[in-house]
């Protein structure tokens, strides 16, 4: 495709020549001959600084916010991120316009809600694409992902693959970062879903108001909204929306509500009420948050035209999502090991209160906090973990470039306030080993923070670290009888 043709998809102030474009890229290390290199201005790096390197590697043209002294055609635009998203959509043939699109945003519950909507749609016989934290799915084919929402070029490529493979409905998690950075710019969602909003990602957004505003952007790109009426920020999220709003909740008056809720270690049962109708649901994922996720998924499914039978059968066939309160095999031990992705205060509190509801003995919680991320939540998480646990194993999560012991010190401020018994073991493998060796009959060991992740970020790199594999290795010998 010619650069001049691609440029028609976006607003620009100047075009200095033309070139045949092979593909669109934003990483200078991946440039090949004939590529269009987008000089994206990011949080830590400015792509303009790598433009010369991209030209040396064979870039045929550049997308820039300021003209550079380089002898290749340049498209000068107000925002390289917006231009990249619009041009990528055009390059791949506007794939999102050929499928139903559902976007789910919120601090917690995005993954489970997307999987629930997927289960309902598949029960109805549709081929579903899923884009999210754990993996991307095209039908039953798995594509691993590094980000909750891929960069716009990668996202449009995945959507084109989905379209080409006959996908009818795409369900995707939409992160606050992706909304703020225009990764999903240009995508019209048939339904946008808001799960909840709590303290997270303030290292990036700088203020809670910015975080809220980023989340709300989803609904400027949606035709219909599904909102959690019980969330404290519901009024902020719904205020000024020019699209139809469907609500769900338990405490507030909502379009989709739940009554007669029964939570057990095996799951939740409740009556789903909507528009005067009522049906009993039995979902095999424990916790009150499963009720909220199911309500949001059911509301979205209703707006997409799925039947009550599809909703009921689809949800009741659901099982634990990877790394979300997932029980791990213990090879005959008389204690339980649960794996959960909870890495924010509200998520950790939700998981622990759920476990407290069915725990017969002690709750041993192993957790840490990530480096180079929101510092304020560290003591908050320490206090929450101590308040709801009987014993804590404080360790590392993804320390990244920070000193892991400094992160632990901040966590311990909250732990000390809680008065909970604890041990500090920085090495996460050794910490897991300690927790398993000290678990007793009917104890529940919660491994919190990593969930589905199969790596640990230390320094500037990643190392393989799969807690499912580690638990299996440590418990490989059958329990003594």
Overview of the structural elements:
The protein has 481 residues and is an alpha/beta fold. It folds into 3 domains: 89 residues, Udp-n-acetylmuramoylalanyl-d-glutamate--2,6- Diaminopimelate Ligase, Chain: A, domain 1, CATH 3.40.1390; 222 residues, UDP-N-acetylmuramoyl-L-alanine:D-glutamate ligase, CATH 3.40.1190.10; 149 residues, Protein-Tyrosine Phosphatase, Chain A (Alpha-Beta Complex). The protein has 16 helices and 24 strands. The strands form 4 sheets. It has an 11-stranded mixed sheet, with helices on both faces. The protein has a 6-stranded mixed sheet with strand order 17-18-22-19-20-21, with helices on both faces. A 5-stranded mixed sheet has the order 1-5-4-3-2. A hairpin with a 7-residue loop joins strand 17 and strand 18. Helix 4 crosses helix 10 and helix 4 packs across helix 11. The chain is globular. The N and C termini lie far apart (69 Å).
Strand order of the largest sheet: 9-8-7-10-6-11-12-13-14-15-16
Radius of gyration over C-alpha positions, nearest whole angstrom? 24 Å
In what range is the share of β-strand residues?
A: 15-25%
User: CATH superfamily of the largest domain, please?
Assistant: Mur-like, catalytic domain
Number of domains: 3
- Provide the CATH architecture of the largest domain: 3-Layer(aba) Sandwich
Number of helices: 16
In terms of per-residue confidence, which ranges show pLDDT below 50 for 5 or more consecutive residues?
none
| CATH class wording of the largest domain | Alpha Beta
């Amino acid at each position: 495709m010619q650069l001049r043709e691609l440029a028609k998809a976006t607003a620009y102030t100047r075009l200095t020549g033309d070139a045949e474009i092979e593909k669109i890229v934003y990483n200078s290390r991946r440039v090949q001959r004939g590529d269009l290199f987008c000089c994206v201005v990011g949080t830590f790096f400015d792509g303009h600084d790598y433009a010369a390197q991209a030209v040396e590697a064979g870039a045929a043209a550049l997308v820039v916010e300021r003209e550079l002294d380089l002898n290749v055609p340049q498209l000068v635009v107000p925002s390289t991120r917006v231009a990249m998203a619009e041009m990528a959509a055009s390059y791949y043939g506007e794939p999102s316009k050929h499928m139903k699109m559902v976007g789910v945003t919120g601090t917690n519950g995005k993954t489970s809600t997307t999987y629930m909507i997927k289960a309902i749609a598949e029960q109805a016989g549709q081929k579903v694409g899923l884009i999210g934290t754990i993996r991307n799915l095209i039908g039953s084919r798995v594509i691993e992902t590094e980000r909750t929402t891929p960069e716009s070029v990668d996202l449009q490529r995945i959507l084109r693959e989905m379209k080409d493979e006959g996908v009818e409905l795409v369900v995707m998690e939409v992160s606050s970062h992706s909304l703020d950075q225009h990764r999903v710019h240009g995508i019209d969602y048939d339904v946008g879903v808001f799960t909840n909003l709590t303290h997270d990602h303030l290292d990036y957004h700088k203020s809670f108001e910015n975080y809220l505003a980023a989340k709300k952007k989803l609904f400027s790109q949606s035709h219909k909204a599904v909102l959690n009426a019980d969330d404290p920020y519901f009024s902020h999220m719904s205020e000024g929306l020019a699209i139809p709003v469907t609500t769900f909740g338990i405490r507030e008056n909502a379009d989709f509500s739940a009554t007669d809720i029964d939570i057990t270690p095996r799951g939740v049962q409740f009556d789903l009420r909507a528009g005067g109708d009522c049906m009993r649901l039995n979902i095999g994922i424990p916790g009150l948050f499963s009720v909220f996720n199911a309500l949001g998924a059911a509301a979205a499914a209703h707006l997409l035209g799925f039947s009550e039978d599809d909703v009921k059968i689809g949800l009741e066939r659901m099982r634990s999502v990877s790394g979300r309160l997932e029980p791990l095999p213990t090879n005959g031990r008389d204690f339980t090991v649960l794996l959960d992705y909870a890495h924010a205060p509200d998520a950790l509190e939700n998981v622990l209160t759920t476990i407290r509801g069915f725990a017969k003995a002690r709750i041993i919680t192993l957790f840490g906090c990530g480096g180079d991320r929101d510092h304020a939540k560290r003591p908050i998480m320490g206090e929450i973990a101590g308040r709801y646990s009987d014993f804590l194993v404080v360790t590392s999560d993804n320390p990244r470039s920070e000193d892991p012991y400094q992160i632990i010190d901040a966590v311990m401020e909250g732990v000390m306030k809680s008065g909970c018994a604890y041990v500090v073991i920085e090495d996460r493998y050794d910490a897991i080993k300690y927790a398993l060796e000290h678990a007793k009959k009917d104890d529940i060991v919660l491994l919190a923070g990593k969930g589905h992740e199969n790596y640990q970020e230390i320094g500037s790199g990643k190392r393989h670290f799969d807690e499912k594999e580690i638990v299996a290795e440590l418990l490989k010998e059958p329990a003594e009888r």
